[in-house]
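FAQ: What does the model actually see?

It sees only this:
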Amino acid sequence: MRAICQGQILAARRVLALLDLRSHFPVLERTAYLNAGTCGPLPRAARTALDDVYSLAESEGRRYPYWERSLALHDRLRTAYAAILGAAPDDVALTTSTSEGVVRVVAGLELGRGDEILTSDEEHPGLLGPLVAARERHGVTIRSAPLAELASAVGPATKLVACSHVGWQRGDLAPSFASLPEDVPVLLDGAQGAGAVPVDVAALGCAFYAAAGQKWLCGPTGTGMLYVAPAWQDRLPAIGPTYLSFVEPHGPIDTWELRPGARRHDTPTLGAELTAPAVAALDLLGAYGWDAIHTRARELASALAAMLRASGRTVAPRDETTLVTFEVDDPPAAVERLSAAGVAVRDLPGTPWLRASVGAWNTEDDLERLLGALT
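And it is asked to produce this:
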């Protein structure tokens, strides 16, 4: 009994702490924001960090102080992303989006005719686009199977498994790929994973993990990450290396060396105007504890799913993630109606579904507001 009471007390304290987190997001003052699966709410600290960068650039010009701050922010962002993935900083590249990471892996592996990419049957276009390009340009075969069955669907011709860590439509989780042969790498699209649910790239058994900074990490659009497992760092050529990809890009070109680890895959330009707000958002979220953030978001999402079912709505099958997808009549019209009522969700084109993305910054009142606006 005492252990149960202590657990309840700790849970209550966690909820109270996260109610304070909510106060850092201005949009939540007027909107039940349930759309982090597209873009997370921006915290006030991100705007302050951006203003500081522009103030420095305006007053001092974009010279050494500006560039020194930019490079320092690269290091801080890489370290923060690595901690979220359960990886070492040297194994993480800075990108502009999940899709850029996917492109760098699919193009870098240089697959060709006779090679097969195995993917799931409900993937986001941001993942499928690079696969289609590999098929059209190099004759690669694309085969799909249900997400839960991918690990057992690998065949003799499979040279890459590419799928979501968390399905973007229903919030279903990919299986572990730890038992796959070492010569069949797994590329996970973590757009709905990083920041939303715990990530351990080693436990997932993936060689590559691409994710976004603007969704569950509440950073600006144009930020992201790519994890490259140590065993694959020398096997994945850098696509379009530029200035920051090399250790010392000076002198005779035949003396240039690519940076070790995943850094050679960094996007060519990621200015302080993006990295400063991204770091500020990560610092804010990290101060409240990622375990608490993950737990609270999953609990609220489960509660919303139960509330929707109790109201007679059809809820799509889901795992314990932060996405809740449910059926409505005329989804685009429903999105507009909900928006007018101060509720932000999205529809999934070509389906009868609306998707609510539930974060630790939300409250039960947000969920009730959604339910009320649906009636």
